[in-house]
Write a structure and sequence with these properties.
By secondary structure, the chain is mainly α. The protein contains 2 helices and no strands.
Length: 45
């Protein structure tokens, strides 16, 4: 949803069970998860 350009307001309007704080918490969690992810590097040929 956020990746598709939706705002927090649009998300909470579409999913009324969510609060803006829920969306913000989810985004922080996703950012932290990606930050901790290790990506293998290719070795130079």
């Amino acid at each position: 949803m956020v990746a598709d350009g939706m705002t927090i307001r649009e998300i909470t309007e579409e999913l009324p069970d969510l609060l803006p704080e829920d969306v913000a918490t989810t985004l922080r969690y996703a950012a932290q998860t990606v930050r901790e992810r290790e990506l293998p590097l290719r070795q130079a040929a």
